[in-house]
Amino acid sequence: MQSSPYANLRRKIVIILAATAILPVLLLSAINYMEFERTFTAEAQNPLRATVSKSKNSLELFMAERSSTISLIASAFSYEDLADVRTLQRIFFVMQKEFSGFVDLGLINEQGALVNYVGPHRELLGIDYSGQEWFHKVRFQNRFVSEVFRGFRLFPHVVIAAQHVTERGDRWIVRATIDTAQFMKSMSIAHFEPDSDIFLLNRKGVLQSDSLFYGKTLEQCPVPVPVQSYETRVVNTSDHNGRPILLSYCYLAGSDFVLVAVKQNVNPFQSWFMLRTDILLILCVSILAIYTVAARTVGTLIARLQESDKEREQAMLQMEHSQKLSSIGRLAAGVAHEINNPLAIINEKAGLLCDILEMEQAFPRREQFDSNLKAISNAVARCRDITHRMLGFARRMDVKIEELDVNAVLSETLLFLEKEAQHRSIVIIQELADGLPKIACDRGQLQQVFLNVLNNALAAVDDGGETRIRSALHGKDAVAISIADNGVGMDEETKKHIFEPFFTTKKEKGTGLGMSIIYGIVKRHGGEIQVDSAMGKGTTITIILPAGHLPAGA
Q1: What is the pLDDT, as a whole number, of residue 328?
Q2: Number of separate domains in the chain
């Protein structure tokens, strides 16, 4: 089933209005969504990023101070001074006093042998480091910071070594051991949140410090080593158990250490998710409200447009009907004029015969001739009345406002229906009040009103029924005409739609325009029309018209 043009128009207008109003809302919501997401992401990541940045600065400062100290000792003192036990002890004493974390201090000759040592492991004196990886690295780099390893000491530690080369080509290495516990102390300088962890990795993923969540020093960390970056970065990822974590990290310059901070068990975007739900809810409610308002507003406008089109169509039909009546009126005038001429001749001839008959006193069969002549005169008079009514109908096609006697118009209208009433044995009772004021109205239109109502009344009653016509004064300046029948009556639904165009209860026999035209005529003359009806009890139509006189000279 195809939808009506009004439904298509309504749908298009609603879509255009809704799109015009909703698109800016969607655009604004998208912009707010992205801005809020960026803000909440920054708020969730910034504490972790700040913690890693502070810890990185602390660690790099820690390592730089101690590495510079070892380099200074290697270059400021001669090999002989460093080889002296007392001198090395004095130097180590000052180092421990100024800097925390040093465990021991040793001098290694260019062959890799530990020739002097100050610290808790005197048994290492004389040990050969020439086969150690760190020894070869320091010979090429002059300064080296190792990863955490056990080595000969059998406990985790970090080695800082610096090489000094003289002008003659002599070289030696000053080597110091750093306790890994100092890493933890330097990292703990930065304030850290609950459910969070901070630790060191090497580039192979081995823990260089103890972790709250992922193991002890020198154990393999289950968290993958992140992509190299010397700038602090924050990523959303998951750990080996599949739990979502917020991971921040950076690589430390001058070493193989990777500083990692992890936050778990807390959804960093919980507040954002709640706000996002609110934003989406507000957006949906706004879209629904916009669409509802647009749909209702457009529906009202389309309904008014449809009603206006119906009224225009009704006016066109009424105009077409008036044109048809006008054509019929002109035809009736022509027919009446053509009939009147032979009727006048017949009437004159009948009168002449009557005169001749009166002149002849002894005319045979006088009574028969007299009876026939009277029948001819009566027939001519009847035809004259018919043509007179036809001419009156023709003259009323053009609207002409005049002062009318309501009772006279009613009586004239009844002449058109008396034959039908007689044929169907319908009793028409007239109760017309005397002395009613005249009304200013068009005779043809008023007669059309009465004729339509009377036709409906006769159609509503069965043969042998009754129709009652009353006229009376209504108030001080109005005349009321009521036409009542004892027919089938109307239900409430029919009464609601009786004056609507194209509404009819006569099925294919009626056009549905009669009562709507009546209603329009009465309203144009400033009157009212009332309906009182009940099923099985009949219907009463009351027409109230204002009394009035034409202005002088009209």
Answers
A1: 62
A2: 2
CB atoms < 10 A from the CB of 544, how many?
Answer: 17
pLDDT at position 2, please?
46
Chain centroid offset of residue 280 CA: 13
In a domain, 469, yes or no: yes
d(CA 501, CA 5): 20
Contacts for 313-317: CB closer than 8 Å, 24+ residues apart: 313/501, 314/501, 314/513, 314/516, 317/501, 317/513
Q: Which DSSP symbol is given to 77?
A: S
User: How would you classify residue 530: left for phi > 0, otherwise alpha for psi between -120 and 50, otherwise beta?
Assistant: beta
| In a domain? residue 284 | no
CATH code for position 108: 3.30.450.20
**Which two three-digit tokens encode residue 448?**
């059309």
Across the chain, which distance is largest between two alpha carbons, in Å? 195
- The percent of the chain in helix, strand and coil, each rounded to the nearest 5, is 50, 20, 30
CATH for 441: 3.30.565.10
Report, as ranges of residue numbers, the positions in the chain whose pLDDT lies below 50: 1-2, 190, 268, 396-397, 551-554
Q: Pick from 208, 241, 268: which residue ends a domain? A: 268
Residue 269 CA to residue 45 CA, distance in Å, equals 10
Question: Final residue of a domain: which of 268, 293, 324?
Answer: 268
160 has which bridge partners? 145, 176
What is the pTM (predicted TM-score) of this model? 0.46
Q: DSSP per residue over 334-393, as a string?
A: HHHHHHHHHHHHHHHHHHHHHHHHHH-TT-TTHHHHHHHHHHHHHHHHHHHHHHHHHHHH
> Under a CB-based contact definition with an 8 Å cutoff, are residues 91 and 107 in contact?
no
Q: In terms of residue numbers, what domain contains 23? A: 1-268
pLDDT of residue 273: 62
- Residue 361 in domain: no
CA dist 235 and 266 (Å) reads: 15
**Residues 163, 172 contacting (CB under 8 angstroms):** yes
Question: Per the structure block, which two tokens stand in for 299?
Answer: 């529906």
The strand pairing partners of 207, in sequence order, are 201
